[in-house]
Amino acid sequence: MTAQVEAVNGVSPNGSNAPSGPPAIRVEDLSTGYHEEPVLQHVDLSVAAGSLVGLIGPNGSGKSTLFKTMTGLHEPWTGRVLINGKPGKPGADVAYVPQTETVDWSFPVTAGQVVMMGRYPRLGLIRWPRKRDHEIVDRSLEKVGMSGFKDRQIGQLSGGQRQRVFLARALAQEPSILLLDEPVSGVDATTQHQIFELLDQLCEEGVTTIVASHDLSCVAQRFDQVLLLNRTVHGYGPPDEVLTQDLLNKTFQSHLLLLRLGTRTFVVEDPDHFQHD
Amino acid sequence: MIEWIMEPLGYSFLLRGFVAAIMIGIICAVVGTFVVLKGLAFIGDALAHIAFTGIVVAFLVGFSFYIGALAAAIIAALGIGTVSQRTGVSTDTSIGIFFSGIFALGIVLMSIGIHTYTIDLFSYLFGDILSVRRDDLISILILGGIVLAVIAVLYKELLFVSFDPVVAESAGLPARWLQMLLLILLSVTVVVSVQAVGIVLVVAMIVTPSATAYLITDRFGVMMALGAVFGAISAIGGFYLSYYADVPSGGSIVLVATSLFAIVAIIGPKRRNLRKILGSGGEVTQRPA
């Protein structure tokens, strides 16, 4: 099974190129939630630097809450998150692309200006963007295939284009850790393919990336590590070790069928069972 | 023509009013850029009314009007900011109750406490540029200068937080602190403007020139600069209208600003933004709870 994942991804599932030193992300006995209502309980996790992790779990399983806690947007009730070995708010080292942006699309900014915002935390007070910052913005737009839209006001872009602009802004931040919440939902197949190529490239550059996704088959094929989350960690490791019938049932508390066709793994809903989502 | 322009400026009290009006026109529009885009007009209106009660109390106690108005407006801004950040829900109703109540208290205090100053206080309600004394002008220039300097220093950060507070905070910017600062800048702007345009009309001075600029451009920085130009034009035009037609300065300045808006709304290129201002457009994605 391991060979199959390697064949698809070209990446060692065990992260043989993992550098020594502290893990990029370490979560220690984390519990948190909203208004007394717990969402995450006793989460323990250690993500090696340079990993490309697919995060899967049903709706309401705490994926977004886990991301928000990692970026410092949300406070742990108990336990802690260490980013590159350090506790506290990670700042620009962690870039976060939320699932839905709560922005006003008629705001008077262009795609290029939105991407430049990714540079702001790195620039510091009063300092204006320099040549290097403009180059990083151009490169980030190019990486997501949006170079031609730099001067377009963001409201005039399609949903998939907006999503790519926000991804470019995260890249411009030059993070060591990238957290993407459903980045390929609502984008066309070509864009989806481009985004995954980009993620592979970031992985090679040593950026630790966690991608929350609904698409289990895609996670099985595209990622070197899979994190199964439903209020707590139900499994973390290479797809062939973690994507088992038993662990999937535990995570989704419903019936999913695991299909292995040749070198590929697919996960489908079991048509014989009703699934609530 | 030149004589017509220069005549009122020959009087030092009119020249003071002229300079004050221009400064107010500019800072109102610069702060107004954030107010228009973040929908803070109602909060600005509330702060102006609360500032009035601060002015009345300052008169009763014998403080400078600036101290009373600033204290009242900034305390109110901090209260509004804290409540809206804590609850995350629309605070319109609570602000409406709170600010009307405090304004009512100011009116009652004014009528029972100060008989001789009543006319003076009415000038704060409707604005009287001729009441700007030398000390007032100095206060307007210093406070206005501080507002402009803070926005210049934190321009990038305020832009990021106004556009996308969640991601700005995740990237390490102190988003809550910056949003609170914006409300404090709004308070100072309201207080500085009250003498010239009056409590009732100060929101128009903050919102209208920026909204006019929004009808012309899709760039944040351009919107701010154009807004400042429209604010200054409104101040200058209103000043002369007030002088030659002998009408209150607050009314005349806002009338010029509104006329500019109407003209640009008819000929301006950004129809989408007009629809947003008029409340029938503007696409905002809400994150599901």
Description:
The complex is a heterodimer of chains A (277) and B (289). In chain A, helix 7 links the parallel strand 6 (177-181) and strand 7. Chain A is built from ten helices and eleven strands. Chain A has a six-stranded mixed beta sheet with strand order 5-6-7-3-8-9, with helices on both faces. Chain A is α/β, with parallel strands linked by helices and 277 residues long. Chain A has helices spanning 2-9, 63-71, 111-117, 120-123, 131-143, 159-172, 189-204, 216-222, 239-242, 245-252, and strands spanning 25-34, 37-47, 52-56, 78-83, 94-97, 177-181, 208-212, 225-229, 233-237, 256-261, 264-269. Chain B is an all-alpha fold. Chain B is built from 14 helices and no strands. Chain B has helices at residues 2-6, 12-38, 41-61, 65-87, 92-113, 118-126, 134-153, 155-163, 165-170, 175-197, 202-214, 220-245, 249-267, 271-277. At the A-B interface, strand 5, helix 3 and helix 4 of A face helix 8, helix 9, helix 12 and helix 14 of B.
SSE map:
The complex is a heterodimer of chains A (277) and B (289).
Chain A: H1 2-9, E1 25-34, E2 37-47, E3 52-56, H2 63-71, E4 78-83, E5 94-97, H3 111-117, H4 120-123, H5 131-143, H6 159-172, E6 177-181, H7 189-204, E7 208-212, H8 216-222, E8 225-229, E9 233-237, H9 239-242, H10 245-252, E10 256-261, E11 264-269
Parallel strand pairs in A: 3-7, 3-8, 5-6, 6-7
Antiparallel strand pairs in A: 1-2, 1-4, 8-9, 10-11
Helix pairs in contact in A: 3-6, 5-6
Chain B: H1 2-6, H2 12-38, H3 41-61, H4 65-87, H5 92-113, H6 118-126, H7 134-153, H8 155-163, H9 165-170, H10 175-197, H11 202-214, H12 220-245, H13 249-267, H14 271-277
List keywords for this structure.
heterodimer, A: 277 residues, alpha/beta, Rossmann fold, 6-stranded mixed β-sheet, 3-stranded antiparallel β-sheet, 11 strands, disordered N terminus, B: 289 residues, mainly alpha, ABC transporter involved in vitamin B12 uptake, BtuC, 14 helices, globular, disordered C terminus
